[in-house]
Amino acid sequence: SLEPSCPRDFTDTLLMEMEKEKYSAEPIYTLDNIAVTVADMFFAGTETTSTTLRYGLLILMKYPEVEEKLHEEIDRVIGPNRIPAIKDRLDMPYLDAVVHEIQRFIDLIPSNLPHEATRDTVFRDYIIPKGTVVIPTLDSVLYDSQEFPEP
C-alpha cells in the first residue's frame, strides 16, 4: 500500500529510497537494512520509554514520598492549566534526577554502544590494539558505591 506521492511514515520513506536504488550495484537501502533500522528506532525510542515508565511507576509506588515531591515540582512548574513542554525540563531538576536514578537502578542499558580504539592503548595493564572493538559494560559502574554512595 506504498503511495510514493504521500508517504505515511518513516518506513515508507525508507522503502521509497530503496526503490530509487533498485538498480544500484551496492544499494544501501535493502530490506534487511530497513528492518534493522526500524527495529533500532523501536527499541531505542519506544522500549526505553515504556520500560522506564513501567518500572518508574512501580518504584514510585514503593517510595510515595518521592512521588509526592515529584508531584509538587510538576504542579509548581507546569500547573493545572497547560500541558508540559520541553523547556519545562530545565525547571524540574528533581524530575530529571528521578528519571535518571530509575534508569540507573533498573540497569536499562547494561552495555554502551560499540567503540573502536583509535590507537594502541594500555588500560589496567592490558594492551588494547588500535582497531579493537570495545563494548563497555555500564552495569559495572551503575551499582558502584564509590560512584553512587547514596542512590
TrEMBL record:
Compartment list: Endoplasmic reticulum membrane; Microsome membrane; Mitochondrion
Main subcellular location: endoplasmic reticulum
Annotated keywords: Endoplasmic reticulum, Fatty acid metabolism, Heme, Iron, Lipid metabolism, Membrane, Metal-binding, Microsome, Mitochondrion, Monooxygenase, NADP, Oxidoreductase
InterPro entries in the cross-refs: Cyt_P450, Cyt_P450_E_grp-I, Cyt_P450_E_grp-I_CYP2E-like, Cyt_P450_sf, Cytochrome_P450_fam2
Pathway noted in the entry: Lipid metabolism; fatty acid metabolism
EC number(s) given by UniProt: 1.14.13.n7
SUPFAM superfamilies: Cytochrome P450
Needed co-factor(s): heme
Source superkingdom: Eukaryota
GO cellular component: endoplasmic reticulum membrane; mitochondrion
Membrane topology: Peripheral membrane protein
Keyword Iron: yes
Catalytic activity: tetradecanoate + reduced [NADPH--hemoprotein reductase] + O2 = 13-hydroxytetradecanoate + oxidized [NADPH--hemoprotein reductase] + H2O + H(+); (5Z,8Z,11Z,14Z,17Z)-eicosapentaenoate + reduced [NADPH--hemoprotein reductase] + O2 = 19-hydroxy-(5Z,8Z,11Z,14Z,17Z)-eicosapentaenoate + oxidized [NADPH--hemoprotein reductase] + H2O + H(+); (5Z,8Z,11Z)-eicosatrienoate + reduced [NADPH--hemoprotein reductase] + O2 = 19-hydroxy-(5Z,8Z,11Z)-eicosatrienoate + oxidized [NADPH--hemoprotein reductase] + H2O + H(+); an organic molecule + reduced [NADPH--hemoprotein reductase] + O2 = an alcohol + oxidized [NADPH--hemoprotein reductase] + H2O + H(+)
Example GO BP: xenobiotic metabolic process
Entry similarity comment: Belongs to the cytochrome P450 family.
Function: May be involved in the metabolism of insect hormones and in the breakdown of synthetic insecticides.
Complex formation: Interacts with chaperones HSP70 and HSP90; this interaction is required for initial targeting to mitochondria.
UniProt name for this protein: Cytochrome P450 2E1
Native organism: Culex pipiens
